[in-house]
Amino acid sequence: MSDDLKKGLEGVLVAESALSDIDGDAGRLIYRGYTIEDLAREASYEEVLYLLWHGELPAADDLETFAEEMAGYRAVDDGVLDTVEELAAAEENPMAALRTATSMLSAYDDAGNEPGDREADLTRGMRITAKMPTIVAAYKRLRDGEAPVEPREDLSHAANFLYMLNGEEPDDTLAEVFDMALVLHADHGINASTFAAMVTASTMSDIYSSVTSAIGTLKGGLHGGANQNVMRMLKEVDDSEKSAVEWVDDALENGRRVPGFGHRVYNVKDPRAKILGEKSRDLGEAAGDYKWFSMSQAIEQYMAENKDLAPNVDFYSASTYYQMGIPIDLFTPIFAMSRSGGWIAHVLEYQEDNRLIRPRARYTGPSDAEFVPVDER
Ligand SMILES: CC(=O)SCCNC(=O)CCNC(=O)[C@H](O)C(C)(C)COP(=O)(O)OP(=O)(O)OC[C@H]1O[C@@H](n2cnc3c(N)ncnc32)[C@H](O)[C@@H]1OP(=O)(O)O
Ligand SMILES: O=C([O-])CC(=O)C(=O)O
């Protein structure tokens, strides 16, 4: 492979960005200069959205106005809910259902869908981010044979999602853990799904198309889909006769990858995995059952000692969400609900100085094939 071919675009700079930065050797992540630890501890998801979209932390009254406006956009039109019902009845994969329903939202947006107007795109972005949780919760309830729960405007973004999912208000601890998980997943440089959103936007397509591209990209097991795979692995270990270490050892022997480990940018433990690991432990402690946390810790230690690989964000979010009673196949839609903030921020930022994204491949096919008409082949 020649030096100019960057398989997987590793290390390639494609844009300037003031949104988030990762120091992969130090295990440090910042959003607009603020450390992820400070934001996880101090800021709500709504505050982080404001920070990403408007460039600074909001003053208290700006935050109130912003959160109120977003809460007002939570309801989803019946036409979209009818489709969600059909998708749930067909047992469509929830990420695919979210992709389809989010795409459909554009038909009902009275801000239209014309690209190139930053203010209109911000409104559309708020609407998309406000409505995605309503779609995910409605899908889950319809799949379970229950009626969707209408969103409430008096609850935070995080608490309202858990309320719509379960039909009852979450306690403060669960709402706080979920809000923190949304903060942790909101942005992460030019990851694959964000890049997909930017590629779509760079053609001067619309923001709904960008977010739809991104949802489809986040779905894969090498990216956001890993959080579901982590929990399926933990359950498989639990159902087996083997210890976690034996199970992982066998998996590696068979050439399998261990979900939730490794990262294109981090060479050390992902700072978000540290925070989520503590939450997973706390939830285990509250339930008087450390099973999932202990199993995860054993795998982490084994992977560090034998593969020199550390957990990424998906590793401990899995047992955190599971212990909150969230169905496994909703883990990735929840990631999408949060990352929509980053996708929209990057699209808006890139379009300030847009250039079509169009890389090239080194051609390896024949160059002088002689065409033979079909009836002579
Ligand atoms: C939100 C997110 O998207 S975070 C990532 C979520 N994805 C996962 O957790 C899936 C598991 N992880 C992986 O597949 C990878 O680590 C990725 C896709 C995240 C990063 O991949 P890349 O940067 O392309 O690294 P690459 O695939 O070249 O791996 C480097 C080496 O580490 C190994 N490796 C990387 N991750 C793992 C893993 N999870 N389990 C076992 N081995 C691994 C590879 O086999 C490779 O070894 P080799 O050089 O001997 O062939
Ligand atoms: O940055 C990446 O490559 C993957 C990602 O989205 C994340 O870790 O949050």
Summarize the helices and strands and which ones pair or pack:
Blueprint: E1 20-23, E2 28-31, E3 34-35, H1 36-42, H2 45-54, H3 60-71, H4 78-89, H5 94-105, H6 118-143, H7 157-166, H8 172-185, H9 192-202, H10 207-218, H11 226-239, H12 244-253, H13 271-287, H14 291-307, H15 313-323, H16 331-351
Antiparallel strand pairs: 1-2, 2-3
The chain binds acetyl coenzyme *A and oxaloacetate ion.
The site of oxaloacetate ion (OAA) has 7 residues, from loops.
Organism: Halapricum salinum
Protein name: Citrate synthase
Keywords: Transferase, Tricarboxylic acid cycle
Folded structure, characterized:
Strands 1-2-3 form a three-stranded antiparallel β-sheet. 47% of the residues are buried. It folds into two domains: 204 residues, Citrate Synthase, domain 1; 98 residues, Orthogonal Bundle (Cytochrome p450-Terp, domain 2). The protein is built from 16 helices and three strands. It has 377 residues and is an all-alpha fold. The radius of gyration is 22 Å and the shape is globular. The model has no long low-confidence stretch (mean pLDDT 97). The structure holds acetyl coenzyme *A and oxaloacetate ion. The site of acetyl coenzyme *A has 18 residues, from helix 15.
Main traits of this protein?
binds oxaloacetate ion; 16 helices; binds acetyl coenzyme *A; Cytochrome p450-Terp, domain 2; 2 domains; Citrate Synthase, domain 1
